[in-house]
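queue> pop job 88
queue> type: inverse folding (structure -> sequence)
queue> payload:
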């Protein structure tokens, strides 16, 4: 058994999947390079037409190029290509905070033996502001690939331990902290792609959209994020976040309903 010591994590590959992220990826890779526990920095580019690959070459130990298939398939390719079993997945529009980096550094050998997955909150930003209503948005990004199962999902990929338990960390990843573009609030193409993927994920799980879903789901989403998640504390910005959630849910269920009609057609 290899012992890493109370202040020495095992070798970790930090993995980044990217396409056309030239305006954001440098921030992600700079945050990764600042982490003393990152043994390898690996980037998979999936068909960028901008300067993303050139920027990645300046930071990463390896930059590989792969054709886009789907979210989970490409992430699996990325993780499988890592030189180490312990991997940390970071999106190109995210950053590892110094506090999270220090928390990982302080983990003991016993932590890595007992917990094949570490989860952390993600602190989201939109239009340059922190989205309080989306907290804590806990995600599982640090894990031992040999001790997890990873079911295929079109959007929300999560992992489950095959032994041991997941351990929550306190400090966050930040998401879109350096973006202040209205396109991050509303991008029609992105909404369409996401609605398609989410609807397919729901359909595959046996979910179907009925009349009550089409009438009420988006209203429930609005009040969830405006009242229950306390978006109202952020004034007009919180109102916009609740409206964004309602529109996203409406589009998702509309696409699911349409998918059902397509499947019924000869």
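queue> result:
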């Amino acid at each position: 058994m290899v012992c890493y010591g109370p202040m020495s994590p095992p070798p970790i590959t930090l993995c980044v999947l990217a396409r056309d992220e030239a305006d954001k990826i440098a921030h992600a890779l700079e945050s990764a390079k600042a982490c003393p526990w990152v043994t390898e920095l690996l980037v998979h580019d999936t068909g960028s037409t901008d300067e993303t690959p050139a920027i990645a070459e300046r930071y990463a130990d390896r930059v590989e190029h792969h054709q886009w298939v789907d979210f989970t398939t490409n992430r699996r390719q990325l993780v499988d290509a890592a030189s180490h079993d312990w991997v940390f997945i970071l999106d190109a529009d995210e950053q590892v905070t110094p506090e999270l980096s220090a928390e990982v550094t302080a983990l003991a050998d016993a932590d890595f033996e007992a917990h094949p997955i570490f989860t952390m909150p993600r602190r989201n930003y939109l239009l340059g502001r922190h989205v309080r209503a989306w907290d804590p948005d806990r995600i599982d990004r640090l894990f031992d690939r040999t001790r997890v199962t990873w079911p295929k999902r079109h959007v929300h990929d999560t992992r489950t331990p095959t032994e041991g338990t997941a351990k929550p960390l306190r400090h966050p990843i930040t998401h879109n902290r350096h973006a202040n573009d209205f396109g991050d609030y509303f991008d029609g193409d992105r909404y369409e792609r996401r609605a398609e993927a989410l609807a397919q994920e729901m359909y595959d799980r046996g979910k179907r959209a009925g009349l009550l879903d089409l009438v009420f789901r988006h209203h429930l989403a609005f009040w969830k994020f405006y009242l229950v998640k306390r978006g109202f504390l952020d004034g007009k910005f919180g109102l916009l976040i609740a409206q964004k959630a309602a529109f996203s849910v409406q589009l998702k269920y509309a696409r699911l309903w349409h998918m059902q009609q397509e499947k019924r057609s000869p």
